[in-house]
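Troubleshooting entry. Yesterday's outputs looked truncated, so today I'm pasting the complete records for two proteins to confirm everything comes through intact. If either block looks cut off, that's the bug. Protein one:
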Amino acid sequence: MMPLCVFVVLLSQICQVPAVNKTSGITQDSGLKTAKVGETVTLKCFCGDDGTTFLSWYQQSLGGKPLIISNRLKYNTQGSISPMYEERFQVLAQGDQKCINHLIIKDLRLSDSATYYCGILEFNAIEFGQGAFLHVKTSQSEIHAVVHQPALELLRPGDSVNLSCTVYSEPCAGEQSLYWFRHGAAQPAIVYHSAGQCKNLSTEEPHLRNCTSSLALKSVSSPDAGMYYCALASCGEIMFGSGTRVEIVGGSTKVPPLLVYCLIVALAVSIIVLLVLAFIMYKLKKKLCSDCKGTVSHLACSAASDVMSQDADGLHYAALNVNRTSERHTQEDNVESVCVYSRVKTRKE
């Protein structure tokens, strides 16, 4: 059984075939997109699953809840748009197999800065795209702030790190908030809200403040790689930092599929060979045991007969006279002769 155990351990350590994930039925623009006030932007969305029945768009502002923008049937080019978006929002629809559902936003405003999700209804289940954050900025910003963050973080799988961000700003009317955005080739623009810790830089200039924020990443893996942006939301605008690139190095080496298949075949062949050898050993053992039992029985019988012959030669006979007196008067004078045979076994040196 030792070869079998060795193959099983080897296969469990080396042949780690990744699971095949279900392909998403929706594809949309993702990550961070930047545009200026007054421009027109198009957010693309495609669906390729035949089970899709409805398509929609949602807008989620910072700190807010998702609001529906549009909704339409898959093969209907005319959809319904919510009243608050009718003026500047339009859906480019196409009811053929390509399933196009692009969102067009005209005359951009600062309030349009939000995350936009394309959604589909498939077999009574709602599925959303990765989401794209649209950052609308003005040519002359009213925010007087500087956002600093490290440029690069090299991590190994399983490491943990706190991404830091420092913001120097002048407070203005309204609330100031710090956020973290993640952007990557295969990652959605996930938004993390951070309360941050702010303090005045000096008593001489109380209008200047220093705010720090951190984002904890624990037990990182390949999907955590990407750009992480620290952003300050103030005075109705958003200011982004230069971003921190997180790279995962020293990951596990992938085994070529051909080697995996070869190991699987080798394992199957070894198991078959072991089973055949075990069957042969069982048959041989059974035959040897039967022959052994027959020889032992023959020897036992021969030995028993020899012992009986030797015992017969050692028999001695003796006659004993026994006088028994009975209580009855008719049998008082009767003497019975009893012959008793005894066998004396002699011990031969």
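Protein two, checking that the full record survives here as well:
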Amino acid sequence: MLRLQETRQSEETEASRREPLGSKRRAAQELKELEKRVLGGEEEFTKALTTAKSKRQKKKSAAALNAATRKPVWEDGDDDTAKFEKLTGTPKWAKIDTEKPADDDSDLEDLAASTGTHLVASSSLAPSYLQLKRCPDGNSDSPNTGKLSSVRFHRSAQILMTASTDRSVRLFQVDGKNNKSLQNIFLDNFPVMSAEFNPCQDEIVMGSKHRSFYVYDMMAGKVVFVPKIKGLEEKNMSRLQVTPDGKLIVFLGQNGNIHLLSAKSKEWIHTLHMNGGVSDVTFSSDGSTMFATGDDGRIYVYDLTTRQCVHNFFDDGCVHGTSISLCKGYLACGSNTGVVNVYDREACLTSSSPRPLKAVMNLTTSCTAALFSPSAEILALASNLTEKAVKLVHVPSFSVFANFPEMNDTKIRIPWTMDFSPNTGYFAIGNQKGHALLYRVKHYGNY
């Protein structure tokens, strides 16, 4: 049986050896034809590979070109380049935005669009109702912890300054939404009792209950200490103002003394005198004339060019003057009784006892602050002797806006200081809790 199997295997082996060579060639040829049908032949296959490689190279080149020239759909304005851009001249954040603020509600515009010509914005301020929008506090990004002695808007930059008895002066970029903190200045043992911008030198003058004072250079970011002024025997320099032309720093001293210092050199120039104590002063827009009120119920008019008292007159019914403010054609004089007399400016310069155009009697306590808006259409009055004692008066009708302050606006508390922005677009109140309340006056289009 074993031999039979071996015989069969040897026969098969011999048969395979005898298989003709032509059959192998036919098999190889059939395989080549199959490859040609599937792949198209060696030449066509090589050509296809070359074409595919060329297409891939073209796609890579196009992608690289697009990556180099492609622009993003949006650009981030707060990138590192913008943050560390070298400042030359006025910083970008210090430029007034002359466009209408983005925080304005659009409901009035929608209403105007839907009512056609029946609702048209007036060029003059209406006397009955003042459209105000309460904004986040001006110093909410960096709150003060003490009473605010001064809140001031910069005259040419969209900046709000707060000065406080917590020994700090803070700067904020006003936008009505975030009011971003720009700078915090802390002074050791120097509770700031008053602070004013110098509109011509980009600096802040700060006074306290000391014989010296400080000046902050806004562009250099440097605080300069000014020691006691030689020749002045004042015990403190806590009450100060800067003339609108930026040439003089005016300190209100004791016994009716008004000290004039050079804003540039910080040197004492002259001292003016008035009967009784001086309570407040105000200036003409060009800084050439100063009006002063005080204990004897008279208003004194000074020519700051000649440094002479050129006129004085009685404030009608006033025993003790407490505040004073001047605008284009009007002079407002507040008294300790809360009565505020509003005069025609020209009549005050020619008469010794002019008759007031209006006696505003809406305050029940002493009027400690009076301020005309730059537009001369609003007169703000306040008393720091009672809560919520703030009134806004329409000019020239001299009617009080009944909708301010609102009944539920309890955050005003005790108003110590207030200010309008250069175009009356914003109104700020500083209280004894360190809050700088900020209001948007919607009648006016910008800062």
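Both blocks look complete. Sanity check on protein two: The mean pLDDT is 83.
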